[in-house]
């Protein structure tokens, strides 16, 4: 079984760098900037607990259900695709590929904040990896081609 603490610490550090680069992401949460969110990739054996903490986020991976004000569940590919704007959240919700439980207003605030930030997680990773950025981007592009999971933000033309 994979230890989750090192990955949690890494994701927390990564999310804090994103918070510094995109401060509007957490401001956009408004009243939900201290709300606990559970992101539940249904094809993985853990959940992702996101505590925005007013722009100083903490990410904790845990086995089990976790507790939070809002839970967003779906395949990892769908969750990542939402971040990158590759998938329509409404379509995923109405097709039941994505399930929202708890405070739907909080979940909607998170979705809107992420949409507005127009994140590209691969670019964010590259920005913090220094000289490893280029080989890492090559690896990410390879993984995206092999898995079909949208690991980068598509160009506007590709999205349509």
Automatic annotation (TrEMBL):
It comes from the Bacteria. InterPro entries: SCP2_sterol-bd_dom (IPR003033), SCP2_sterol-bd_dom_sf (IPR036527). Residues 37-114 form the SCP2 domain. This is Sterol-binding protein.
